[in-house]
Amino acid sequence: MKNLFLFLVVCAFTTPIFAQIVELDTVVVRPIKYKYIYEVVDEDIDQSVKDLQIKLAKFDVTKEEYYSDEYDSYNVSFYIPKGYAVATYDEDGQLLRTIERYKNVKLPLAVIEAVAERFPNWSIDKDIYKVSYSEPKWESKKTYKLKLTNGEKTIRVKTDQDGNFL
Questions:
Q1: pLDDT digits (tens, 9 = 90+) for 130-148
Q2: Residue 159 burial (CB count, 10 A)
Q3: Cα angle vertex 35, ends 30, 39, to 5°?
């Protein structure tokens, strides 16, 4: 009985040694450009613009067929019906800068309230939303150019994303 017990204990400790070893494929994890998303993507913007900006942040130029590590940078254009974005990536696929321009998008509440307060009885006829982002300084500039109408009168104003007139 003692020998049987000893045999079972030895088997219990040696069985894991003979377990099958499985090698998994190499997985490469690349972070999306969080600095860009943090600086540019707002909750209070047009959904199609937000979707394009997230697509731009997730884009990996190193996976494209035209990629060659002998070039220093790549300019990639993204289009939607409301506008476009041009992004510059370095040879490692890091986002360096963007220039974006969109027409007639949903305006942030701060911009709408600022226009309504300063220009009562005026309506927003057209708008252009411009974004520029630069990686080395980790900063962005967002402006709204608005065309306001009141009957036959027309004026153009410029604001930032917080409703401050420029």
A1: 999 987 777 889 999 999 9
A2: 22
A3: 145
